[in-house]
Write a structure and sequence with these properties.
Largest sheet: 4 strands, mixed
Shape: globular
Strand content: 25-35%
Structural class: alpha+beta
EC number: 2.5.1.19
CATH architecture of the largest domain: Alpha-beta prism
Pathway: Metabolic intermediate biosynthesis; chorismate biosynthesis; chorismate from D-erythrose 4-phosphate and phosphoenolpyruvate: step 6/7
CATH superfamily of the largest domain: Enolpyruvate transferase domain
Helix content: 25-40%
Number of strands: 23
CATH topology of the largest domain: UDP-n-acetylglucosamine1-carboxyvinyl-transferase, Chain
GO biological process, one term: amino acid biosynthetic process
Bound molecules: shikimate-3-phosphate
Number of helices: 13
CATH class of the largest domain: Alpha Beta
Pfam families: EPSP_synthase
Function: Catalyzes the transfer of the enolpyruvyl moiety of phosphoenolpyruvate (PEP) to the 5-hydroxyl of shikimate-3-phosphate (S3P) to produce enolpyruvyl shikimate-3-phosphate and inorganic phosphate.
Length: 436
């Protein structure tokens, strides 16, 4: 992790410009893992140069995978085949990345060798039984520290497929099971309470692995072969989200966001903002690398509070912090329910957002699974991000409209998912400075 970095977000200008935000984090992680296990050489373009995805690349390199970086945002990977990874006695450091650790837990459960997965302070507090319990049902042996990292994954276990209904909607858990399923005897089937992002399924199919999937359901059997495939990573909707809210709330704004990934399991925020009165057009819808992408044109519009439909929550799980900001400056009350998963993200995002919004004068009542937010005017104040990248960027957006500067403590982890946010934001009308 980089050293401590604080920002100040000051009143901004109307936002203008044509931006391309960095590559999708979920797709970048998966492209590395599948390319590593494939036969042949895969070229990834649009790869997210974030700390999370680089940590996954470093882990795979430690496991003997040759990965080249011909240019920024590109990786060329020599796949070692399903059984070609080499064990190491060194701990494998996933940094801040829950996705990296949980997916790798599934992938490593099927190897002949032991591995130890570790993470930073935040990742070390995140629940892992959601993956280790169903993996144990498949025959895996993984030790946790009372359900938390480090994970010690025992090799040499014979895995068998299971039919598993997820207790919580989680693409990470689903993906861990599917990756373990590549090594298992028989069929692995995952059923979800609400459909989650299906990148693992789509990408397995693109790499030639037989898989049946539809929203909320995936089934594969083990012991086939992955064939090297080039991957074009779309721009990350979750990174675009900060600019969607920023341009919506900042009078006089018009922002164009190009080639944004529009997988329907990611676009809940678009629907929520439209329900609040936002003016967001999607143009030039197309397919890129098997994923829907489009250009977004976001214009300022007066927003009003809503009762957020609970069905949208899983499709915007990473965008809720910035929705809290939209709600805090909208007219009237916004009610968010069914979002208890926010409590086990990089920070407890309900508590962190509630404390931060209160610190800048907003009226917010925290509930166990959401919040009631009364729209109004934001004031100057100091916000603690708890090292959570999405909290830091959300309050950078809040600063655009606040009556005085918002100081945001501990912003270095923005680099986990959105390197260059500071410069991109300042280039289109934000006034972000580094605080002393
Ligand atoms: C992700 C799934 C989501 C999301 C995370 C990325 C993925 O987590 O919050 O940022 O790439 O599969 P859950 O699986 O815990 O819902």
């Amino acid at each position: 992790m980089s050293s401590r970095l604080d920002w100040q977000s000051h009143a901004g200008q109307p936002l203008r410009g044509n931006l391309r935000v960095p590559g999708d984090k979920s797709v970048s992680h998966r492209s590395l893992m599948l390319a590593a296990l494939a036969e042949g050489r895969s070229h990834i373009r649009g790869f997210l140069e974030g700390e999370d995805t680089r940590a996954t690349a470093a882990v795979l390199a430690q496991l003997g995978v040759h990965i080249e970086t011909p240019a920024d945002g590109e990786r060329v990977i020599e796949g070692v085949g399903l059984h070609g990874l080499r064990g190491t006695t060194h701990a494998l450091d996933c940094g801040n990345a829950g996705t990296g650790m949980r997916l790798l837990a599934g992938l490593l459960a099927g190897q002949a060798f032991d591995s130890t997965l570790i993470g930073d302070e935040s990742l070390s507090k995140r629940p892992m039984r959601r993956v280790t319990d169903p993996l144990a049902q498949m025959g895996a042996k993984i030790d946790t520290q009372d359900g938390l990292p480090p994970l010690h994954v025992h090799g040499g276990q014979n895995l068998h497929g299971i039919h598993y209904t997820l207790p919580v909607a989680s693409a990470q858990v689903k993906s861990a099971l599917l990756l373990a399923g590549l090594y298992a005897e028989g069929e692995t089937e995952v059923i979800e309470p609400h459909p989650t992002r299906d990148y693992t399924e789509r990408m397995l199919a693109a790499f030639g692995w037989p898989i049946v999937f539809k929203p909320g359901f995936a089934r594969l059997s083990g012991k086939h072969t992955l064939r090297a495939t080039d991957v074009d990573v779309p721009a990350d909707f979750s990174s675009a989200a900060f600019f969607m809210v920023a341009a919506s709330i900042m009078p006089g704004s018009e922002l164009h966001l190009s080639a944004v990934g529009l997988n329907p399991r990611r676009t809940g925020l678009l629907h929520a903002l439209r329900l609040m009165g936002a003016d967001i057009r999607v143009e030039n819808e197309r397919e890129s690398g098997g994923e829907p992408v489009g250009d977004l044109i976001v214009r300022h519009a007066p927003l009003h509070g809503i009762e957020l439909p609970e069905a949208l929550v899983p499709d915007m799980i990473d965008e809720l912090p910035v929705l809290f900001i939209a709600a805090a400056v909208a007219k009237g009350q916004t009610v968010i329910r069914g979002a208890a998963e926010l409590r086990v993200k990089e920070s407890d995002r309900i508590a962190t957002m509630a404390a931060g919004l209160r610190a800048v004068g907003a009226a917010i009542e925290e509930t166990p699974d959401g919040a009631l937010i009364q729209g109004g005017t934001l004031s100057a104040g100091t916000v603690v991000s708890h090292g959570d990248h999405r909290i830091a960027m959300s309050f950078a957006v809040a600063g655009l409209l606040a009556q005085g500067p918002i100081r945001i403590n501990d912003c270095s982890n923005v680099a986990t998912s959105f390197p260059g946010f500071f410069e991109l934001a300042n280039g289109c009308g934000f006034t972000l400075t580094q605080a002393d």
